Amino acid sequence: MHALHVVQGYFPWIGGSQRFFQEVSERLAAEGHRVTVLTTEAGELEHFWMPRRRTLGPAQETLNGVQVHRFPVQRRLNHPLLFSLYRRLMAEISGLPLDTTALLRRLSRFTPRLPEYEAYLEQTDTPFDVVHGANITLDFMLSPALAFARKRGIPFIVTPFTHLGMAGQRRVRRYYTMRHQVEILRQADAVITQTPIESEGLAALGIPRERLFCTGSGINLEEVTGGDGQRFRERHGWEGPMVLSLGTLAYDKGTVHLIEAMRRIWAEGRPVHLVLAGQSMAPMRAYLDRLPAGRFPFLHYLGTISEEEKRDLLAAGDLLCLPSCTDSFGIVFLEAWANGKPVVGARAGGIPAVVDDGVNGLLVPFGDVEALARAIVRLLDNPTLAQEMGRRGKEKVEQGMTWAHVYGRVRQVYRQVCGL
User: Which of 51, 296, 336, 352 allows an S-S link to 341, with CB 3.0 to 4.6 Å?
Assistant: First the structure.
C-alpha cells in the first residue's frame, strides 16, 4: 500500500494532529508500506496568518521511513485580526439561507495559499492507494486532496479534529462546521473521530454513521514517563504544590481562566506554583506581558521545553489543568495520567469523553473561574483523592489509550476502506 497523508503541520511541529499523523505514518512504514506526507513549512499555527513565524525544513526529507514534502505558505492577510475577520465572514456566509458551498470552497483557498502543493497534486503520477487528510478548520489543503482522490478513483479518509465547543453554543463549532467543510466530510469514504462526542456531533450534521470511526489518540508510555521531579524542582528552585499547564497557551485553551483561578488561590495566601509550558499565541503573550512584573512570584512561563524537561515537569507536578473549549481530545491528560497525576478539564469539546468526572479527574464549565479554583484546591487539599484519580487515569491509559491501541483501530479503518 502507498498512503498519501495530507496534514497542515508535521514533526518536528508537536501537536495533537501532528503527532497523530506521525504515529500512523511511521507505523505504516514500519509494516513495509510506503507513506508520503504532504505538509507545509509551518512550525506553528500562527505562521498561516502572520509573517516571521517559525518555519520547518527541508522541503523534502525522509523521517523514519516516511517521505515528507513541505510546501511554502503564501498569505494574502498578514495580521491575526484580519485573518480572524476573514474567517468570521466565511462563517457568516455559511449561515446564509442559500447554498454558498462553492463560494466558501473558493474562499477557503484565498489565504493561506499553497500553489506548489496544488501543483504537486496536479502533476504527480505516483500510484497512491489511499488519501488521508486532516484538520477540517485548516481546510485549504483538504478540498484539493479530496478532488485529487476523486480524480484518481481512490479512497479518501479524513480526520477532522472537530472542535465543538460548549454544548448549545456556536461560537467555536461554526468554524469547524461550515458548509464546504461538512461537504468534505460527507464525501469522505471514512471519517476518523477522536471521541464519541465528535462522532455524534458529525452524525447530527448528516455524516453517515457507517462512515464514522472513533479511534481516539494516544501516547507512548516510555516517552512521557521516567522523569526526575526533584531534579526539575532543584533546577528552578521551586518547592511546594505545583499545578501544570502543557500545550498551546490561548484564551480558548482556558489559559486566562486558569491564571485567574490561581490568582484567587494566591489571594488566600496559598503558595502554589503554576507552571505554563508550550507555545503561546500572540493574544496570550500580550496578556502575560500586561501582568504586573513581580506581583505573581508563583506564576512561571517556560515557553517551549525539551522532551526531557517535559518528563521532569510531569514527574514534579501535582496536577494538570486543561480547561479548554477547543480540544477534540486532549493528549496532555494521558501524559499526566501516565505519571499518576489527576487532571482538571472543561466540560466542553471532546474532553468529557476523555476525562471521567470524579473518577480520574474533575470537570468544570468552560470559563467558570470560581469552579476551576475550587477544583484545583479540592485536589491539592485531598492528596489521597488526587493519588487515586491519578492511579485510575494511568489504568485507563494502559488499557486502551497508547499509540499501539490507537494505531490498531486506525489500521482497521484502512483495511475496511482500502482492503489492504
Answer: 336
Measure the CA–CA gap between 179 and 176, rounded to whole angstroms.
Answer: 9
* Residue among 334, 292, 318, 326 nearest 382 (CA): 318
Its sign, for the CA torsion 110, 114, 119, 122, is negative
Confidence of residue 233 (pLDDT cuts 50, 70, 90): very high
Calculate what percentage of the chain has a pLDDT beyond 90: 93
**Which residues are bridge partners to 319 per DSSP?**
243
Same domain for 179 and 235, yes or no, is no
Pairing of strands 66-71, 60-63: antiparallel
**Does an H or E element contain 100, and which?**
none
Residues in CB range of 157: below 8 A, 6 or more apart: 130, 131, 132, 133, 188, 189, 190, 191, 192, 413, 414, 417
Average pLDDT over residues 109-135: 97
Which of the four pLDDT bands, split at 50, 70 and 90, describes residue 295? confident
Does 78 lie in the same domain as 32? yes
User: How many domains, the chain?
Assistant: 2
Residues 202 and 236 in one domain: no
- Report whether pLDDT(419) > 90: no
Q: How many CA atoms lie within 13 A of 19 on its CB side?
A: 17
pLDDT, tens digit (0-9, with 9 covering 90-100), for 314-346? 999 999 999 999 999 999 999 999 999 999 999
- The pLDDT value given to residue 259: 97
Instruction: Give the three-state DSSP class for 56.
Output: coil
**Which grid cell sits at 351?**
474532553
Residue 134 CA neighbour count, 13 Å, CB half: 24
The residue segments making up the domain with residue 387 are 223-399
313 and 360 inside one domain: yes
| 3-class state of residue 320 by DSSP | strand
Domain CATH number, residue 102: 3.40.50.2000
> What is the model's pTM?
0.95
Helix (H) or strand (E) holding 224: helix 221-224
Measured at the CA of 273, the angle between CA 236 and CA 268, to 5 degrees, comes to: 145
Q: Binning pLDDT at 50, 70 and 90, where does residue 282 land?
A: confident
**Whether residue 300 sits in one domain with residue 203:** no
Sheet holding 319-322, edge to edge: 299-303, 273-277, 242-246, 319-322, 343-346, 361-364
Residue 354: phi and psi, rounded to 5, are -100, -50
